[in-house]
């Protein structure tokens, strides 16, 4: 398998400043689909969860097609019998791939919101996601931003009366309103998952600038930690068509290429929109899914190439955009914009098992082209994807 060159050609600073040193094709993960491309659109492929299939199935297809991708790695999945090995991460990076952090243990680090009011004395909460239920005994907080109480998980599940529910180790001591109040792990646990995962992966010998949040849950403390410690938040919310003008790298969205989530025609339509609107398209896949076969991945790569779309890593795309802005060809984003906007275009919370990454955004591409990515995002709940 042929590589793309050594890493370390360009690096994004931990706080989001883009530092570019000697940008070129080697090490940047940039592959041009056509010498006479008539679109400024670009595509980033991201593969979540760091299962061994990223190495055995997906990496060879990208090498054969001569294009890079990004691996969103879960620390606890690495160096297992079924996950990637540290040497896989290093070799992928040396071949032009970008390694991202996907938390330490693949738990929901974003807020889970109450779907019904909670009264003082309640021992069960109704939530818009089930991801804490399996963590019995672990400490959590319930908060509305002004008041915060501590508790612990005692179980949970789903039934016809309560929908998704979480059982508490002891009665809640305060009343909380639905929708505005939320539940999450403690600050220490979320910091370990978000910041600690970056440190652990870099200890394996790779560079980590981007973050991917499990299950698409990205509201709350995780936002602040990612903005402070990473150069990019690859699934903060949106439908994957990230307008270049005013782009906030901490407010990016993705669109699935997984076989269970979209058809081949929908993948083609997504790339049509990327090309027509000169956007940064981010596509996500999960190599461990049977439906996301090497053939499906090759189809998606070739669909992008056929539209003269440049396939790059996220690091390379953002570094090039920074170069253009410095040359006066673009407008730098105001990082505060994402704090004033919400939720997620195609990532609305329809059900606990739905995809965290939206289907292609049909009919809204022209609107997105005129808005910054942050201007499009809405902060309502992400769709939960228990397969993400």
TrEMBL record:
It is found in: Secreted. Residues 322-366 are annotated as: Disordered. Keywords: Signal. GO terms for cellular component: extracellular region. Pfam families: Polysacc_deac_1. GO terms for molecular function: hydrolase activity, acting on carbon-nitrogen (but not peptide) bonds. It comes from the Archaea. The keyword Signal applies. GO terms for biological process: carbohydrate metabolic process. Its main location: secreted. It comes from Haloterrigena turkmenica (strain ATCC 51198 / DSM 5511 / JCM 9101 / NCIMB 13204 / VKM B-1734 / 4k). The keyword Signal applies. Residues 39-112 form the NodB homology domain. This is Polysaccharide deacetylase.
């Amino acid at each position: 398998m042929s590589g793309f060159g050594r890493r370390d050609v360009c690096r994004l600073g931990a706080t989001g400043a883009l530092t570019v040193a000697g940008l070129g094709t080697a090490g940047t993960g940039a592959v041009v689909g056509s010498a006479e491309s008539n679109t400024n659109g670009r595509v980033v492929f991201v593969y979540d969860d760091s299962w061994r299939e990223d190495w055995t199935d997906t990496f060879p297809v990208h090498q054969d097609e001569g294009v890079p991708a990004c691996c969103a790695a879960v620390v606890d999945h690495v160096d297992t019998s079924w996950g990637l090995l540290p040497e896989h991460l290093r070799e992928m990076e040396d071949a032009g791939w970008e390694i991202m952090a996907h938390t330490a243990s693949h738990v929901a680090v974003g807020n889970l919101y109450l779907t019904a009011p909670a009264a003082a004395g309640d021992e069960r909460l109704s939530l818009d996601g089930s991801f804490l239920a399996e963590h019995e005994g672990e400490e959590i907080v319930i908060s509305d931003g002004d008041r915060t109480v501590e508790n612990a998980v005692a179980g949970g599940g789903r039934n016809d009366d309560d929908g998704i529910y979480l059982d508490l180790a002891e009665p809640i001591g305060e009343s909380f309103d639905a929708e505005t109040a939320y539940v999450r792990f403690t600050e220490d646990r979320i910091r370990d998952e978000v910041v600690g995962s970056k440190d652990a992966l870099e200890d394996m010998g790779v560079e980590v600038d981007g973050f991917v949040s499990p299950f698409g849950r990205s509201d709350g403390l995780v936002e602040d930690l990612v903005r402070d410690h990473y150069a990019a938040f690859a699934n903060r919310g949106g439908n994957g068509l990230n307008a270049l003008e005013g782009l906030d790298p901490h407010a990016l969205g993705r669109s699935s290429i997984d076989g269970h989530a979209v058809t081949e025609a929908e993948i083609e339509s997504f790339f049509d929109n990327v090309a027509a609107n000169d956007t940064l398209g981010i596509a996500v896949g999960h190599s461990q899914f049977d439906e996301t076969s090497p053939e499906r991945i090759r189809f998606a790569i070739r669909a992008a190439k056929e539209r003269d779309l440049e396939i790059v890593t996220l690091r390379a795309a953002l570094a090039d955009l920074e170069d253009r802005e410095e040359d006066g060809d673009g407008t730098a984003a105001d990082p505060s914009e994402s704090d004033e906007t919400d939720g997620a275009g195609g990532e609305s919370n329809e059900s606990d098992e739905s995809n965290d990454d939206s289907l292609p955004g049909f009919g809204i591409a022209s609107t997105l082209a005129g808005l910054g990515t942050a201007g499009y995002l809405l902060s309502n709940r992400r769709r939960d994807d228990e397969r993400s």
